[in-house]
Design goal:
Layout: E1 5-11, H1 15-26, E2 31-34, H2 43-46, H3 67-72, H4 82-95, E3 102-103, E4 108-114, E5 119-124, E6 129-137, E7 159-162, E8 177-181, H5 185-197, E9 200-205, E10 211-213, H6 221-229, H7 231-240, H8 259-272, H9 288-305, H10 309-315, E11 328-330, H11 333-336, E12 342-346, E13 352-356, E14 359-362, E15 366-368, E16 371-374, H12 383-386, E17 389-391, H13 398-401, E18 420-422, H14 435-455, E19 461-463, H15 465-479, H16 510-522, E20 528-530
Helix pairs in contact: 1-14, 14-16
């Protein structure tokens, strides 16, 4: 790609990058998208592991910017699987003629701000050098995989896979001895399917997870018609909600109702399935005693499903409040441990010592495997950004600025980095929400901001240090009003050795956050310097 002057370079061609391109192009801005993958789709391009599926319902997990797109697209299931979501993203790219401004198989290596010109220089691993007034990072919150760093991995004679980098041709485990390391969301979705293929499956668990049944099914045509008939109101409610999708919420305390009434409510939520259990009562995420009632309900469900009492107790979470790690959504996860060909290993009792040529060895015994699956997660929210050499004023590296943890204003911008925008960055609701609702809100805010700069004949916008400091304090204050910091979760960066422990997303709610962002803009971009 020859050096050229652009209004904006957008990094990433997932849901965020595609919508950013569409919006900016529609406003008359020149933009180019750079994407590391060989296809578009972001999360849904890379994550093709068995059972990969969205945990937000299909009618919610879709773009709202085009009424025609909303009405014409037909989802087949209540919860869409990865192939269908990827098909949808590709349909959007074709329908809105986005591909001509997307460069695939092109990884951005650096983005440097030139104070003399007030522009960004973006370089790639293919030798491209682009010049743009604005740099928009649509790199995704869960796109930088945590690579396995087990001693001896290079000696393993079988095949190994990471759920976040699954082979596009798929994997057939029929007749194999398979080991799965990890029991987060990717593992919980894939384990039941791998268990049905493998001769024997051994699951290595460090931390048990709370998981809800999905009760997935073909999408109800009557429900689809109902939503499409009132999509405008449906979307409005989602934007003003706490989590970006519509769920019945109670204003009551879990401790203010009788145990029988509480049990009935929990049973009703369990029967409905999916996310939203934490909305059963208003204080489940702020009061430990209230949370204990819900956690014990889950523990009882696990014990009722899993027939072997010892296995059930190993699967029961005990050391963090329910909902403070992202609640998982599954199909037959707990029941899979009733299969004769499935073994559960508790890594807290017997940690992995090393990968061996034939499998792996814990402190207790050696295991023989034909294949290993690492479901060990991501360097969430900051990993993809810090993998790029981003430099702002005075050549300051973003890595240096964020050494003690990420600092942003509104999760959108960083002081000292003019005209750099983050979509669903740290300090915004992002992973605590329906991502597409948060993506659209961020892109629309950025687009409106660029129009304001153009109309006002301003070249740059930059957050002040004071505004950034105040926002970081606010994010931390709100986070510590909840139970979330009590869990060693990837929300806190706890899954990455050496990563600063800081609550990464904003928990004030999607609707409240949107209002704050709109107020900042309405007050002439309060907290920013426009020059």
């Amino acid at each position: 790609m020859a050096a050229r002057d652009l209004d904006a370079v957008i990094v990433g061609a997932g849901f965020a990058g595609l919508y950013a391109l569409h919006r900016l192009r529609g406003l008359g801005f020149s933009a180019r998208v750079l994407e590391a993958g060989e296809g578009i789709g972001g999360t849904w391009y890379w994550n093709r592991y068995p059972g990969a599926r969205c945990d937000v319902e299909s009618m919610d997990y879709s773009y709202s910017f085009s009424e025609e797109l909303q009405q014409e697209w037909k989802w087949t299931e209540r919860y869409s699987a990865q192939p269908e979501i990827l098909k949808y993203i590709n349909h959007v790219a074709d329908r809105f003629d986005l591909r001509r401004d997307i460069r695939l198989a092109t990884r951005v290596t650096s983005a440097v701000f030139d104070e003399g010109t007030g522009r960004w220089t973006i370089e790639t691993d293919r030798g491209d050098r682009l010049n743009a007034r604005v740099c928009i990072m649509a790199t995704g919150c869960l796109s930088s995989v945590q690579e396995p760093k087990f001693e001896g991995l290079e000696t393993f004679r079988g095949r190994w896979y990471h759920t976040g980098k699954w082979p596009h041709e798929g994997v057939d485990f029929t007749g194999q001895r398979v080991g799965v390391i990890g029991t987060g969301s990717s593992a919980i979705q894939s384990i039941p399917i791998i268990a049905r293929q493998a001769a024997h499956l051994t699951v290595f668990q460090r931390t048990p997870n709370y998981s809800m049944p999905a009760h997935n099914a073909p999408l109800d045509p009557a429900y689809e018609r109902q939503v499409k008939a009132g999509y405008a109101e449906f979307r409005r409610q989602a934007r003003e909600s706490r989590v970006g999708f519509v769920i019945a919420r109670s204003g009551d305390s879990a401790l203010a109702v009788s145990p029988d009434e509480r049990q009935r409510e929990y049973e009703r939520r369990w029967a409905r399935g999916g996310l939203g259990f934490s909305a059963s009562y208003a204080d489940l995420l702020t009061d430990q005693t209230a949370n204990d009632t819900a956690a014990e309900f889950f523990r009882a469900k696990i014990r009722a499903i899993v027939r072997d009492p010892a296995v059930a107790e190993t699967l029961v979470p005990r050391d963090y409040p329910l909902g403070t790690k992202r609640l998982c959504v599954d199909t037959d996860y707990y029941a899979t441990f009733n299969r004769e060909n499935v073994t559960l290993v508790d890594l807290r009792k017997t940690p992995i010592e090393a990968i061996t040529p034939d499998g792996l060895r814990t402190t207790e015994k050696a295991y023989v495997f034909d294949s290993l699956v690492f479901a060990i997660g991501f360097d969430a929210m900051t990993g993809a950004l810090l993998a790029i050499d981003i430099r702002g004023r005075d050549g300051q590296p973003l890595r240096k600025k964020w050494e003690a943890g990420p600092r942003t204003y509104l999760g959108l911008t960083v002081a000292g980095f003019p005209n750099l925008f983050l979509i669903t960055g740290p300090g915004s609701p992002s992973v605590l929400s329906n991502m597409i609702v948060s993506i659209e809100q961020h892109v629309d805010w950025i687009a409106d901001c660029l129009v304001h700069l153009r109309d006002d004949r301003r070249q740059t916008i930059e957050a002040t240090v004071e505004a950034e400091d105040a926002w970081v304090r606010h994010v931390n204050d709100v986070g510590h009003m909840t139970l979330y910091p009590r869990a060693n979760s990837w929300y806190m960066g706890a899954n990455i050795p050496g990563k600063p422990r800081i609550f990464l997303p904003y928990i004030g709610g999607v609707g409240v956050y949107r209002q704050k962002c709109d107020e900042v803009a309405a007050r002439g971009y309060e907290g920013f310097v426009l020059s």
